[in-house]
């Protein structure tokens, strides 16, 4: 059986999304802003995420809220590039809150599926500067593979945070 590169990338995306869908099924609103460590990145009440242009050392532990914003940010910009729109700046993309975050991410998935459905192997060979810049000399196939990898990484981080939160000792009343 022969599988095209675009079919393989779509399969990988679907596999990654199925893992994410598992974690999106049951978060409680209080899970999003739970701070797992003293040094933590989260989002502010206005939806603005913590950020540093140079990654700090040590790296702050992100909250699920921050991670869902992060996914929404890079995925929105990837969609801008894929659809030949002017890419939004990071500061333009705010977190919609715990009541809307999952719907936001599911909506981005639907938009990304449209991109994946129209992709041919020739489309994958087109030059793409996202996320590394034009000077990297990479293709849209690299962008799609990066989206899959970045989503998989962020999904595992969210899953780990959910596990840690659920494993905490319960406060006695």
Automatic annotation (TrEMBL):
Residues 12-158 form the DinB-like domain. InterPro entries: DinB-like, DinB/YfiT-like. It comes from the Bacteria. SUPFAM superfamilies: DinB/YfiT-like putative metalloenzymes (SSF109854). This is Damage-inducible protein DinB. The lineage of its organism: Bacteria, Bacillati, Actinomycetota, Actinomycetes, Pseudonocardiales.
């Amino acid at each position: 059986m022969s599988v095209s590169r675009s079919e393989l990338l779509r399969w990988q995306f679907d596999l990654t999304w199925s893992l994410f869908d598992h974690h999106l099924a049951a978060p409680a609103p209080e899970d999003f802003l739970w701070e797992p460590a003293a040094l933590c990145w989260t989002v502010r009440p206005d939806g603005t995420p913590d950020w540093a242009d140079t990654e700090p050392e040590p790296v702050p532990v992100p909250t699920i809220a921050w991670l869902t914003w992060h996914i929404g940010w890079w995925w929105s910009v990837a969609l801008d590039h894929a659809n030949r729109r002017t890419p939004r700046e990071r500061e333009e993309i705010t977190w919609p809150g715990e009541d809307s975050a999952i719907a936001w991410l599911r909506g981005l998935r639907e938009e990304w599926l449209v991109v994946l459905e129209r992709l041919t192997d020739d489309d994958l060979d087109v030059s793409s500067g996202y996320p590394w810049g034009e000077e990297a000399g990479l293709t849209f196939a690299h962008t799609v593979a990066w989206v899959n990898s970045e989503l998989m990484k962020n999904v595992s981080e969210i899953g780990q945070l959910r596990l840690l939160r659920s494993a905490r000792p319960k406060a006695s009343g």
